[in-house]
Amino acid sequence: MIRRQRDRDPVVITDAVPSSDGALGSRRRRYATLMTVHIVGFALAGVLYYVQWWLGLALMIVTGVLPWIAVVAANDRAPRAARAGHLTRNDSAARELESCDHITIDTPWQPRD
């Protein structure tokens, strides 16, 4: 009799990476957001310069660095998922799979003509 436990996590057998289109879209949104903050902050710094010159200057310096930060952040890839622990998280399921008798079906490979 095989006992099934539904509360166990499934065993992960692959590390699927996000699609290249999804990663590109994410990087484009990140770049557009940082450049929008740069433009708005730079305009606000120009206005603040006439009210409080030191505050306007500080904001201008901070927003002046944002284009370089935006380029580096947009070209950075997503971090890879850690592989450690994926297959060892559910040791009892792995032992059940290894202890079973496996049926092997041998078929000759025939190429198409």
Task: Write a concise keyword list for the protein shown above.
113 residues, mainly alpha, 57% helix, rod-shaped
Explain the overall architecture:
The chain has 3 helices and no strands. It is an all-alpha fold and 113 residues long. α1 (20-51) runs antiparallel to α2 (53-75). The chain is rod-shaped.
Residue-averaged pLDDT, rounded?
Answer: 76
How many alpha or pi helices?
A: 3
- Gap between N and C termini, in Å? 48 Å
Order of helices and strands: HHH
What structural category do the secondary elements indicate?
Answer: mainly alpha
CA-based gyration radius = 28 Å
Q: Looking at the chains present, what oligomeric state does this protein adopt?
A: single chain
Give the biggest beta sheet.
none
Shape: rod-shaped
Taking pLDDT < 50 over at least 5 consecutive residues as the criterion, the unreliable ranges are: none
* Helix residue percentage: 55-70%
How many strands in all? 0
What is the strand content? under 5%
